[in-house]
Design a protein that fits this description.
Blueprint (H helix, E strand, L loop, with lengths): L20 H8 L8 H19 L4 H36 L2 H9 L9 H29 L5 H7 L4 H51 L16
Helix pairs in contact: 1-5, 2-7, 3-5, 3-7, 5-7
Length: 227
């Protein structure tokens, strides 16, 4: 039997290494997705919104109003979907077989170096964190970017307030609109990941049945040898 690679051994205390959502989010940055559809689709949206912002004859007031509308819709969308995601994920994590989680906790994902259970859960946690950040960004726009809000007061003290308002309004419109679309694409990926994990759980049960066939009619008391 080959010697066990100590670097691949998962220590139990490693599962509780992260102490905050920010530390978890930093860990999710090392995960490499096999699909880049979300990134490319978001990039296309950025180009479209950038083109619109450059070519539109609308004033800074009109663009800022659109940005505030996106923030209002985005906050409602993010908080509503986040509630469903947390509830669904809680139920999913509760009904999944504990032995499957333990097996994944004992084995390490080679590409990321994380335990398999953390690798899978970090994919879900990344979606939660991005939705929370997006909701926070939207409520920040709603609170600070009102017509007479903090941002307006700061811009009025610049040397060229009209031009500054126009550029900030366009940047906010592009940034908020792009992230809105990205969160929607993340929802698609989240649904697929839930489906994939459920199929993995079913396959786990099928493989276990092959290795250890279920003895449905096994007697409760061992039979005595009559020989």
């Amino acid at each position: 039997m080959p010697p066990l690679n100590q670097e691949m051994v998962v220590q139990p205390k490693e599962l509780l290494k992260e102490k905050s959502l920010w530390q978890i989010y930093c860990q999710t940055r090392i995960l490499q997705s096999t699909s880049h559809f979300n990134d490319y689709a978001t990039l296309v949206v950025v180009v479209i919104l950038l083109t619109y912002a450059v070519l539109t004859p609308e004033s800074a007031k009109e663009i800022a109003e659109k940005t505030r509308e996106i923030a209002a819709d985005g906050f409602l969308f993010a908080t509503t979907i986040l509630g469903f995601l947390v509830a669904g994920f809680t139920v999913f994590a509760t009904i999944t077989k504990p032995d499957l989680f333990v097996f994944m906790a004992k084995n390490r994902h080679r590409q990321s170096g994380l335990p398999w259970v953390k690798y899978n859960f970090f994919i879900f946690m990344e979606v939660f964190i991005i939705y929370i950040l997006f909701a926070g960004m939207c409520i920040g726009v709603r609170l600070m970017a009102e017509p007479n809000g903090v941002i307006t007061l700061l811009i009025n003290n610049t040397s060229q307030p009209l031009i500054t308002k126009l550029y900030i309004a366009k940047i906010g419109f592009i940034l908020l609109g792009s992230i809105f679309i990205y969160t929607l694409l993340l929802l698609k990926s989240f649904i697929f990941n839930v489906y994939h994990v459920v199929m993995t759980s079913i396959r786990w049960e099928m493989e276990i049945e092959k290795e250890q066939p279920h003895q449905r009619f096994r007697p409760l008391v061992p039979r005595k040898n009559k020989g």
